[in-house]
Target: DUF1570 domain-containing protein
Amino acid sequence: MLRNRNLIAWTFAVAFWILLSTVLTCGNVVASEHVQFVQDGKQYEVCGETLVVAKDGGRLFQANDGQIWMIQSDEIKDHKQDSTAVEIASPEAAVAQLLETLGDDFRVLQTAHYIVVSNANAPFVEYCAGLFEKLHKGFYAFWKNNGWDLPKPQFPLVALVFSDKASFQRYARPEAGPGAETIIGYYNLKTNRITTYDIGEGAGVRAGGFLVDRNIATIVHEATHQLAYNCGLQKRYADNPFWVSEGMAVFFESPDLKRGDGWREIGRINEVNRLRFAQYLPNRPANSLITLLQDDTRLTNTATAASAYAEAWALTYFLVKTKPKQYVAYLKQLSEGDYLDSLGPRERVQMFRDTFGDLETLDRQFIAYMRRFVLRR
Model:
């Protein structure tokens, strides 16, 4: 998942923001706002609703195609509001501007729940679309079976699939920065889109061995982020602990190359992260759970990210399998957070403790469970 760099560069302190709206839910009637603004030398005109406004007039603005814009006050050229409700963009309108920027060789494949924009070969595009739909069905069934009947996405779910690594990197660099050189795909919080490429570059879904294994995992992983942020399970630009977001996506992603489509079920043991956690466990610090919960440092530091992702997956697996009601209650509490709010380390740990109880006891249960049921294979 790509955390948009504009959030880091945003110059206003959260303390200066006034919250204007509560959690968005499908069916809310919100008066349309129209904003004209200039960013990076380009002029934009968007329709939608303001989520947060700063004292000086800067806005966190959600457009009717699902994109969220951070607009500083000196960038706004015109702002007006009318009495009509926000009309969600049609699938065609949601990708119209994207198609204009990409070129004539891109085509659109629309499925029941997705819009796939791609210049890759048709079999791979159809494969990705089928995988998205399979995940969509399983995702909603999984949470419903765990007591959470999630609303359907408010906005069109858009995926951009490039035919090769080079074109993917050219497109991704402005959004992902230097990281574009090393990733297979990402979900962008700002644009609300998944972006990836055909790692086999037309050679077929199974070409490349382990790399295609990771390609499948990446597609499902990033599509999980997109679903989570579009169905009310998580809220974009709110406080979402990285271990929660990434642990959940890794929980859903596990590929299965014994199947024709490479992915079978939600919650299958993730072999890559099982092995990494097994390697981490002998030297796991006593405060490992606390450091995972309190902030995102371990997951965003390249030196510790691999073991942190493995532990995030392992903790998610343990909680889903042994404490599903508490886990859902915890996620619901996180989903109610305010836009641009940021919990401190103590607040994050306390929220987790309030739901799951004493952390030392939980940590012992966690490690014992993983040793007995997951690591012995």
